[in-house]
């Protein structure tokens, strides 16, 4: 089934609001076995709307339209769709009575344009809108099912769940279910991950595998179809097991889990506390940790020391060490981690020192970063990185790398 979504509203094109409706509908449709093949956003313009609807009629079998059903002059969805529907627009008396009752209860006079919200196509299957005024509509036209829904998310979601999805199950006798899982990996690049899984990716059928790269990590979206949800999840579980056998050491979690959450959980499992010493990252590392629920069980706090003088006074970095090696050095990162462990009385400490740019500092080019880690009485370790990008990118990549290093150290310590 070729399914598409058309979102109506100039505010979407101007970026004033995000098209969250299409995202939500796509997920729901995939879950019942009708994956969406196309998203379209069109402004409140009669001619462009009409052309968009005509194209949709020619290429798709299920078309979901959101927005443009309100009372104002720029709500043009119904009028623009008339050429395709070839049906008269009539007032839905039940809806009109509901609108009038609303104004009566609030002792207000209903303006004439509010009658527009009750307009429906003469042969439509009208869907009662319990959350708002304008009803939804289902219309069959030359083998294509049109679904018109309000753009207000709460109204759209209620109509989809209560009215549209049950009807789709009945109309198309839907039996297949589609589910997906996003596996998340850190410490391995996208190209390397694909190379390691080449045989699995080449032979994929059901489930399918889609690699997705993001800042500092890689994801694999596994999507499976089954006669039941349980059947589809079982297929994903079998494929996931094969993937973990190949690259499981880089896997930290699935779906919405973040690397920060994973590190927090590992600290809890070890019964470790953590503290940080940050220079150019300005407290970003510890801020991400304390933003998580349950952070107080593992986080003691963080020290931010941007200048050499503050590093001496706050983190007690010896003056001779700074004079000999500089603040952007292996030696400085190491002593920052060591001293922070004792100053904050923590089991784990991590330090960041470097130059984010745009200008070089202490003879180091922008992107030069040292990250120090101290765990218990183990020997401290310091890692040197050379990150590309602007100032904010370097800072963000350094913080992400810090979480990556901690994840692998803490995971391997069990």
TrEMBL record:
Residues 4-170 form the MoaB/Mog domain. InterPro entries: CinA, CinA-like_C, CinA_C, CinA_KH, Competence-induced_CinA, MoaB/Mog-like_dom_sf, MoaB/Mog_dom. CDD domains: cinA. Belongs to the CinA family. This is Putative competence-damage inducible protein. It comes from Halobacillus litoralis. The gene is cinA.
